[in-house]
Design brief:
Layout (H helix, E strand, L loop, with lengths): L1 E4 L2 E7 L3 H11 L1 H8 L10 H14 L7 H7 L2 H4 L11 H29 L6 E12 L25 E11 L5 E7 L9 H11 L12 E3 L7 H10 L2 E6 L3 H12 L5 E3 L17 E12 L2 E15 H28 L8 H13 L8 E6 L10 E6 L1 H8 L4 E7 L7 H9 L2 H13 L10 H32 L18 H7 L4 E6 L5 E6 L4 H10 L4 H4 L9
Parallel strand pairs: 3-6, 6-7
Antiparallel strand pairs: 1-2, 2-14, 3-4, 4-5, 7-13, 8-9, 9-10, 10-13, 11-12, 14-15
Helix pairs in contact: 1-3, 1-15, 2-3, 2-6, 3-6, 3-15, 6-7, 6-15, 10-11
């Protein structure tokens, strides 16, 4: 918005969350890190570090396509906030593309520097690391994907959005301390999950110089069902690295559990309480029970090496109810479909055993797990010549009852330091796996990963690097505010809708508090900025800045004022 006053133009520009993100980026020294690893010719107008910082700022403040960076720079008064930029046209897609090309080869070492700095300066605790993978679809076919370039490859997948959407695979490690991203990599779209954990952790250890912070044996790596394969477990055990992860119950696991129960071992109550249920009465909370035992593992390449791995069976009362209800629903649907098919036998095209069996598979069994309890048979009754075929079925009630006894049971495996934890501690550690989902939620919802149209997958990977830097910055802000609130035990007045209180505000809510924060540019008749006036902080904004010790906007953004002539 602009107004004209006596040959002086006054323009209002909203700078919003840049008030929060800029000081954190500067504290990390992100621009300097990029310039150190990606130098540029002295005659260049803007260095790669500055363009990378602006790219990250655009994802944090108003994520739009990279071709509209000049529009973003105009809307957010970047020429006022960054004195090095004389005109918004300098922040263009060509310069951004060159920056992404330079970043690609150096992104791992730069990220290592970023995480090392955050761990040192912000006291980031890396004793617990949560791992997971995420498929990220991108717009555009990127047909020019040389196989020998070494970059990630977009591969078509089963996506309801259609053939124009192709995924890459994002691997991420998040710290147990706030769910902040501490490592990531962009992999081929068709990469299997289980094989990514060991090499990615090795890369993280190398680039983040993990040994400087703490020995590997002090770390516990936590993942989902794709992580604790036999091969991965051997890798962690050989490294003396602790790990916890769930495994799908196999028949030998069920046999082991039944043998433990038959030997007199009893389930023990686990005191874990989910945060969302902490306010509920005890009787209404999800109940958990545990039963653990140790399993000996021998290194197949060196039979003299042995480890003790802990297996913990966990029974969830809520999960048991859901599994029982799902089985009952499946059985009711199967039996209703079978009875309907019985009435159609010898009619229409239900006149051969092959057709009837095929209809049972497609109409009754489908992909319902409960089909394993049903046995069907198409017979030829001799006493009914007018109805030559009959469909009969039976239900294995005994097997169903045996399975029902293990409803709600899943298995956790733990090795290294994690194997020495108590059963309650082990369960609580694994329940923190949701923290890596917080990292993915920031990437997907807040910073617009998709849709993106870029010329090469390498540039996409470099852009994901900037997005992950943004996720780290946002996470650090959220973590700092929550810690300050917890210390004072007093919420920020007016931050939440309807006057509600919270000691755990999200970064999206914090950014929203600064949505309308703006500055005023006073320009002379030649269009030159002669004065910049920052808006007065409202009470909520002032509380946030004071609580986490950030400078006032006028102190943060300084620029020489041109003299009027």
């Amino acid at each position: 918005m602009a107004t004209q006053r006596h040959e002086v133009e006054v323009e209002t520009r909203t700078i919003g969350p840049l008030v929060l993100t800029t000081p954190v980026l500067r504290r990390l020294g992100f621009r300097e890190m990029v310039n150190r690893h990606c130098p540029i010719a002295e005659q260049a107008e803007l260095d790669h570090g500055l363009v990378a910082e602006l790219g990250t700022q655009s994802r944090l403040s108003d994520p739009t396509a990279l071709y509209d960076l000049p529009g973003w720079a105009e809307r957010f008064a970047i020429t006022t906030l960054y004195p090095e930029i004389e005109r918004t046209g300098q922040v263009n897609e060509d310069r951004a593309g060159r920056m992404l090309d330079a970043l690609y080869d150096q992104r791992a070492v730069i990220w290592g520097d970023v995480v090392a700095t955050a761990a040192r300066d912000d006291g980031l605790d890396l004793h617990r690391l949560h791992a997971d993978t995420l498929a990220m679809p991108f717009a555009g076919l990127c047909a020019d994907q040389p196989t020998d370039a070494g970059g990630p490859r977009l591969e078509p997948g089963d996506n309801p959005a259609g053939a124009w959407w192709q995924p890459l695979k994002l691997f991420a490690l998040a710290a147990g301390d706030g769910g902040l991203p501490v490592w990531f990599d962009v992999l081929h779209g068709g990469t299997g999950d289980s094989t990514t954990y060991a090499p990615q952790f090795a890369a993280f250890s190398d680039h983040a110089r993990l040994a400087r912070f703490l020995p590997l044996e002090d770390i516990i790596l936590i993942g989902d069902r794709k992580m604790p394969t036999a091969e991965n477990q051997l890798t962690w055990l050989r490294l003396n690295l602790g790990y916890i992860g769930p495994m799908t119950l196999q028949d030998h696991h069920r046999q082991s559990l039944r043998a433990l129960l038959a030997a007199g071992r009893a389930w023990q109550a686990l005191p874990y309480v989910a945060k969302r249920e902490s306010a509920k009465p005890t009787a209404q909370r999800t109940g958990y029970r545990g039963l653990g035992h140790s399993v000996a593992v021998t290194d197949p390449e060196d039979p003299t090496r042995h480890w003790s791995v802990r297996h913990l069976y966990i029974h969830s009362r809520a999960l048991a109810k859901r599994e029982a209800a799902r089985r009952d629903t499946d059985m009711q649907a199967i039996e209703a479909a079978l009875q309907r098919i019985q009435g159609l036998v010898n009619k229409d095209d239900y006149k051969t055993p092959e057709v009837i069996t095929r209809r049972v598979q497609s109409k009754a069994f489908k992909k319902r797990p409960a089909q394993k309890y049903c046995t069907i048979e198409v017979v030829h009754p001799t006493d009914r010549p007018t109805a030559p075929l009959e469909l009969r079925y039976s239900v294995d009630q005994a097997q169903m009852q045996r399975d029902a006894e293990l409803d709600g049971v899943y298995l956790l495996v733990a090795g290294g330091k994690a194997a020495t934890l108590s059963e309650a501690e082990m369960a609580a550690e694994w329940k923190g796996q949701y923290k890596v989902e917080h990292c993915f939620r920031l990437v997907n919802q807040l910073f617009l990963v998709t849709p993106l149209f870029l010329k090469t997958p390498q540039r996409i990977a470099a852009l994901v690097f900037l997005i992950m830097v943004g996720a780290l910055i946002a996470g650090l802000i959220e973590r700092q505010v929550r810690r300050a609130l917890a210390e004072h035990q007093q919420p920020i007045t007016g931050l939440m809708p309807e006057g509600r209180d919270t000691l755990h505000p999200t970064v999206a809510r914090l950014f929203k508090a600064f949505t309308d924060y703006s500055l005023v540019q006073v320009k002379d008749a030649r269009g030159r900025v002669v004065e910049v006036r920052f808006a007065r902080l409202n009470p909520v904004q002032a509380q946030i800045l004071k609580m986490i010790g950030l400078p006032q906007p006028a102190e943060l953004f300084t620029q020489p004022v041109l003299a009027c002539t």
